[in-house]
Amino acid sequence: MTTGKHTLLKHNKRFRYSLLASAVLGLTAGQVNAQDVKTNNEEEEVEIIDVRGTRADLFNAQNIKRFSETVVDALDASDIGGFPDRSVLEAISRLPGITMGRFAAPNDPDHFGTEGSGVVIRGLTHVRSEFNGRDSFTADSGRGLSFQDVPPELMGSVQVFKNSTADMIEGGIAGTVNLITRKPFDTDGQMFAFSADATYADFIEETTPTFSALYSNVFENDSGKWGLLVNASHSELKAQSDGAMVGQYWPQADNDNLIPEGARLTRKKDDRTRQGFAAVVQWQNPDRTILATGEYIRSDSQLAWTENAVEMDDTDAQDGLIPIDGTEFEFDSNGYFEQGVMTSDEGWRGNEGERTPGGIFGMNHSLQSRFRDNESTVEDMSLNVKYTPNDSWALNFDVQYVEGTNDVIDFTVMGATDAVIGLDVSGSGKPSIDFYAPTFNGQPDFDRNNNHFTDPSRSFFRSAMDHIAANEGEEVATRFDTKYTFDDGALTSVQFGARYAKREQTTRQSTYNWGVLSEAWTGDVAWYDSAAGLQVPHEKVSFDNFARGGVLDIDGGNAFLFPAMSLAQNYRSAGAALAPVSSGWAPLSARNTDGSDFIDNEVNQTDEVNTAVYIKANFEGMWGDMDYSGNFGVRYVNIENDTAGFIVFPDNVPDDPNDPNEQENYLPDDQKAFGNAASTSLVSSSDYNTILPSFNFKLNITDEVLMRFGVAETIALPQLGLLRNYVAIQEQDRINVVGDDNNGDGQPDLVSSTIGRYTANSGNPFLKPMEAVNYDLTLEWYFAPVGSLTFSYFYKDLENYFISGTRTELYTNNGATQEVEVASALNGEEGSVQGFELAYQQFFDMLPAPFDGIGVQANYTFVEEEGSPNAGLAPDNPNTTANANFAFEGLPLEGLSEDNYNLVLMYEKYGWNARMAYNWRSAYLLTTQDVITQLPIFNEAIGFLDASVFYDVTENIKLGVQGTNLTDEVTRTSMQVDQDGNRKLRGAFVNDRRFSLVVRGVF
Q1: Dihedral angle at the C-alpha atoms of 375, 380, 381, 387, nearest 10 degrees?
Q2: Burial of 181 (0-12, 13-18, 19+ CB in 10 A)
Q3: Burial class (CB in 10 A: 0-12, 13-18, 19+), 39
Q4: pLDDT tens digits for 802-833?
Q5: Residue 628 in contact with residue 697, Cβ under 8 Å?
Q6: Is pLDDT of 34 > 60?
Q7: Greater confidence, 177 or 349?
Q8: pLDDT category, 453, cuts 50, 70, 90?
Q9: How many whole angstroms separate alpha carbon 41 and alpha carbon 153?
């Protein structure tokens, strides 16, 4: 196994700290050898502390934090596959001040995530991501890396910077997460390591494998010291999540009570595959003045999920929900529905009376079969050369090429049926939902064994919706850094350098293309058993053990008939497959004569050039008996953006210019000219400059206690989706004037038609970066090699927030000019975020054996914001990036939990390594505006318990088991329903407990 032996020096305090800091901060993962720390005084007394396994990882992480130039937290993994959690995202969420989301996307609270999504540091989402201190990104509408897509087996350590120094790349107002891969020079000699596990998910009842292997060799010859490392991983995971949701509350026409718009069921199954590969070559010349590192990293991730969902889809019934005859709804003291059996007096009126009779016949419900496939690839190639010709000069040259692709296919085929709903939301846990046949009369003797929901004559093919994304991006970056070290004096060294990076990215995001297959009121319904419907497959889907029981009861045996999932999974053939039942839907490719998927305004090109120069001075000295150190500097940044896209004008072209009943023929001439459905290219350029000063000071009060102060100006660059150069103009408030029936058709004749106003959704290629001044004050006590108690206070003064807003602009088309109200992302408003972090870790070596192997980690974070506006932006939404029409004012920041904490109990002795970890966070706002309810959705407070046990079978092999979500938590979401902040249950989600059998080896 990999061991770590660490040398602490017992002599001059100032010399000791700077020397040990150099040794520790030069590490990524693996072993620290005694020869890494040298002294010219052979008589100095030294203490050798031999630590290994978890203690070595914690020792390395603790010293990275202790000897850093600014505020940092870190994770370290000496063993391949040795990260304490199953993903990078889950692992870093154990650090103080860092939280992660549990849903597939922060703005999608209806779909639970396999391994979470999104990093929030100190209450903010503006996080910069790096591979080995360089740019890295997923080629979507964002700017950074999707951490859940990164194989943790490739990582040697992770460093989270919470403030900045002048030599750091700008962009992380919240913080910078630097993923550090393994290098051959991390260990001496030859090494082979592997890790393999089988993971069982108990809800989906599937077992999936993960494999990783590493080979490293270091050798010397006449040309110098050489190192080679190859690391590969393959990981699969299958998971299931069930969600029981409650619809938006609507006031009823005859009273002040509010009733939810039925319920929604979802059963989602994830299939995730993740592959990683890294190859590194290092060379050091014989006199140790040159160190060259060439590295290639590739990460491939695919997440494909299927979903069967049932939800009320009857907008006419929103204000006509009534109890079944002979029953009444129960309400709380504020008039909100708690329980009852609901139907609607706005029933469907089909032409096929024997199937959809007149009168009250339940509510229409959508039966959705959805498939989403998201594939991402990141390739990173880099060369770094360090040259230290003498004790005074150190030079660093770095060049990188990174490219990424991201492709999404999202396709839903929807059926429909009628149902009566029984709903009970009076409890504090999961709701209780009953689906009754629409003939349900509320009588106890009603036959619930009827086959309404599995009878193909009672369901029909209703609609389909497709969405596609095809994105790619690349970046070339180079930097040069120089450091000059002085022989003596308070100013120890000066660093200066420059960086140039050019990023090109093409984003293609189609609209969500919804279209009708058939409708009940058309008289030509594609029932599953009709002549047309029989040509298209459907299937019975069971909801047995839904949400682990106690939630759902469906007439006829807990099943519905859905359009076959194969229709959704085979999107490219869906046009032909659905043709027998489709009256109004065609795939996206049908919009273009060449069969391509995207139209002009769905394609955007962004070219960004980032140039930066910096100077940084490092100092140290003595203040009485206390030594201090620090740095100050400035960074100049210039960012140039060129964006290309399209403006799309309204389509007011009449189908028949001679039709006296077509309103487009009556528009004024200028509105006819303006609305000719034209598409015109747009090209825009922007230029941004700023100077970012920084100052960091550290005072070693005693050998064990230090105080740190840091202040730095930082920026966060807008996500690329917000910079999209597009404008989509639509008409609003059409006014038609009618007169007498002069043509004898029985209808009043149109006299005139006028468009009241024009609105538009757009990106904003001139959006400026968000800016902040970050303050940190810490007190840190390091009382043991693996023992510390630290306190950090932070304050962020923020401005230029990214917000939704509107502006009025004049647009000219076809000789006509119109005033347009444009909604887009804007810069505006100021705010602040502040809080503190408290962290503690220790192994209790003072206890008698075997209890001296016990250790604990604990941290708590408090965060509050003041005046910080929510953005209301959706950079990945193809139709609009901005929506400022929030339902309520005064909402907290999205993603911000005021309180979160981690508790870890550890044991390491006699070859055993055990760990129990609990992660908890308080309620937080998921999204200001849910796409379904249009209401703010909160994630209620929740905690998760994970555990692992490993045993060293030999010096080279260890076996272990790991478990996640051991307490089988229910993730609850709520919707804010009024300006007073009252919240009602929106959803309850249940997902897998996962258990892994693991074997690791090092030779």
Answers
A1: -170
A2: buried
A3: middle
A4: 888 888 999 999 999 999 999 888 898 789 99
A5: yes
A6: no
A7: 177
A8: very high
A9: 41
Instruction: Give tens-digit pLDDT for 714-770.
Output: 999 998 888 989 899 999 999 999 888 777 777 788 889 999 999 998 889 999 999
Tell me which of 932 and 789 has the higher pLDDT: 789
Phi, psi at 677, each rounded to 5°: 65, 25
Query: Alpha helix (H) ranges present in 68-183?
Result: 88-92
Residues belonging to the chain = 1003
Distance CA 28, CA 227 (A): 15
Q: Residue 172 is encoded by which pair of tokens?
A: 């992380």
Q: How many CB atoms lie within 10 A of CB 816?
A: 17
Q: Quick check: 827 and 768 in contact, CB under 8 A?
A: yes
- Helix extents (H) in 128-219: none
Q: Is the peptide bond before 850 cis (omega within 30 degrees of 0)?
A: yes
User: Is residue 39 classed as helix, strand or coil in its secondary structure?
Assistant: coil
The residue-averaged pLDDT of 533-542 equals 94
809 forms beta bridges with 820
Give SS3 for 184: helix
Task: Count CA within 13 A, CB hemisphere, residue 114.
Answer: 24
719 near 875, Cβ under 8 Å?
yes
Which has the minimum average pLDDT: 21-35, 457-471, 503-517, 592-606? Answer: 21-35
The first and second tokens of residue 727, run together, are 């404008």
If we measure between CA atoms, which residue out of 444, 442, 431, 436 comes closest to residue 420? 436
**Distance between CA atoms of residues 403 and 382, nearest Å:** 12
Name the token pair of 522. Answer: 């058309």
Q: What is the CA radius of gyration of the chain?
A: 31
| CA proximity to 449, closest of 373, 558, 541 | 558
The residue written with tokens 């960086």 in the block is 499
Three-class HEC string of 328-340 = CCEECCCCEEEEE
Distances (CA, A) of 215 to 77, 86, 155, 167: 16, 22, 14, 33
Cα gap 353→350, rounded to integer Å = 6
* Closest CA relative to residue 336, chosen from 248, 253, 398: 248
Query: Phi, psi at residue 694, to the nearest 5°?
Result: -150, 150
Task: Tell me which of 85 and 691 has the higher pLDDT.
Answer: 691
Has residue 608 got a pLDDT over 50?
A: yes
The rounded distance, in Å, linking the Cα atoms of 1000 and 639 is 46
Q: Cβ distance 452 to 561 under 8 Å?
A: no
Are the C-beta atoms of residues 136 and 64 closer than 8 Å to each other?
A: no
Give yes or no for a contact between 696 and 662, defined as CB atoms under 8 angstroms apart: no
3-state secondary structure of 649: coil
Residue pair 676/664 in contact (Cβ under 8 Å)? The answer is no
- pLDDT of 620 strictly over 50: yes
Task: Read off the DSSP letter of residue 719.
Answer: P
pLDDT tens digit string along 210-267?
999 999 999 999 999 999 999 999 999 999 999 999 999 988 777 788 999 999 999 9
Distance CA 692, CA 21 (A): 26
Q: What is the torsional sign of CA 352, 358, 360, 365?
A: positive
**Distance between CA atoms of residues 399 and 390, nearest Å:** 24
The helix/strand/coil state of 150 is coil
| Residues 6+ positions from 205 with CB-CB distance below 8 Å | none
Give the Cβ contact number of residue 691 at 10 Å.
Answer: 10
What residues have CB less than 8 Å from 971, skipping those under 6 apart?
Answer: 102, 112, 939, 940, 942, 988, 989, 990, 991
Tokens of 302: 């695919």
In DSSP terms, 645 is beta-bridged to 682
Q: What would the DSSP string read from start to end of 410-465?
A: EEEEEEEEEEEEEEE--SSS--EEEEE-TT--S-TT--TT--GGG-GGG-EEEEEE
